[in-house]
């Protein structure tokens, strides 16, 4: 999802799930700690961080409740540069870089070269968020058209494979085409569907393909019926937890500003939905994150 303040920005995820922020809502209280946790997809720049001190403040707050690592994700070139910087400022932060599908029309040769250069940084653990967003074309001035999005998605898939990086997918109203393009191009070894929001049928297709499904605060929304039916189907080894902060704050704080420290709320909501112990779910999701992002290799 785009950064706060981006021109013609589409808070795609927030609007998608009717989970946007309200200036009238105070930040959620600190949750009871739950460890170990990894925020598999967040946007530290959109949370307000502009420098190393700001990154440290946000990550310290998260660490205080058990969130030991975060992946900060880009949606445009400026955000990609910031994400890589943030990952070098703080060893608890890792980066994912790409051009968001709604902005795929800006993927000229110069932009592709810089994204590829940034993606090669050792602190970058994924190419993303990329994919397809079929909600906004024709509704938002400046939004990339479907054919531009598909071309950009194919390029990002190829980039992830060439670099041996995880592919992080944004999918909005495009289940069939996202899966089709992955089949046509040949998916990278590891594919993550960030903020998974589809129903059981798509979940089963992703599970069968070996893809990893990452759940955000939307899984706690009682009206997200199809998503809540899908979430219990996912094996522990194919499940991640994320905030997608500063958006998609979990119930009962929906509409308040989100941050990585809020992840325990989502973890507990998902554990309750799945009939699991929250600590066991946290450990399983963290183990999956370590595999998906190659952190076992970093500790060797």
TrEMBL record:
Recorded GO MF terms: DNA nuclease activity; hydrolase activity, acting on ester bonds; metal ion binding
UniProt keyword list: Hydrolase, Metal-binding
Domain of life: Bacteria
Protein residues bound to a divalent metal cation 2: 170, 194
Gene Ontology CC annotations of this record: cytosol
Binding-site residues for a divalent metal cation 1, renumbered to this chain: 41, 43, 129, 244
UniProt-listed NCBIfam families: YchF/TatD family DNA exonuclease
This protein's name: TatD DNase family protein
């Amino acid at each position: 999802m785009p950064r706060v303040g981006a021109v013609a920005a589409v808070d795609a995820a927030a609007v998608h799930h009717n989970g946007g922020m309200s200036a009238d809502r105070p930040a959620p209280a600190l949750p009871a700690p739950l460890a170990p946790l990894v925020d598999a997809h967040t946007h530290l720049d959109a949370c307000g961080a502009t420098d190393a001190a700001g990154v440290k403040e946000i990550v310290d707050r998260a660490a205080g409740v058990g969130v030991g690592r975060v992946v900060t994700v880009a949606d445009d070139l400026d955000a990609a540069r910031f994400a890589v910087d943030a990952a070098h400022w703080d060893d608890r932060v890792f980066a994912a870089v790409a051009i968001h599908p709604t902005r795929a029309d800006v993927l000229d040769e110069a932009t592709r070269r810089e994204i590829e250069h940034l993606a090669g940084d050792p602190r970058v653990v994924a190419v993303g968020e990329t994919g397809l967003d079929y909600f906004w074309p024709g509704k938002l001035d400046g939004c990339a058209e479907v054919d531009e999005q598909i071309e950009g998605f194919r390029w990002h898939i190829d980039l992830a494979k060439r670099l041996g990086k995880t592919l992080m997918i944004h999918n909005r109203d495009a289940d069939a085409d996202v899966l089709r393009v992955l089949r046509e191009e040949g998916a990278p070894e590891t594919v993550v569907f960030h903020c998974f929001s589809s129903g059981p049928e798509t979940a089963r297709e992703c599970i069968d393909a070996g893809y990893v499904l990452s759940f955000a605060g939307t899984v706690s929304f009682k009206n997200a019926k199809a998503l809540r039916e899908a979430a219990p189907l996912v094996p522990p080894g194919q499940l991640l937890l994320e905030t997608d902060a500063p958006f998609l704050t979990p119930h009962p704080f929906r509409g308040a500003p989100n941050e990585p420290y809020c992840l325990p709320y989502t973890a507990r909501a998902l554990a309750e939905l799945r009939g699991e112990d929250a600590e066991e779910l946290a450990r399983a999701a963290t183990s999956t994150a370590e595999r998906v992002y190659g952190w076992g290799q970093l500790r060797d």
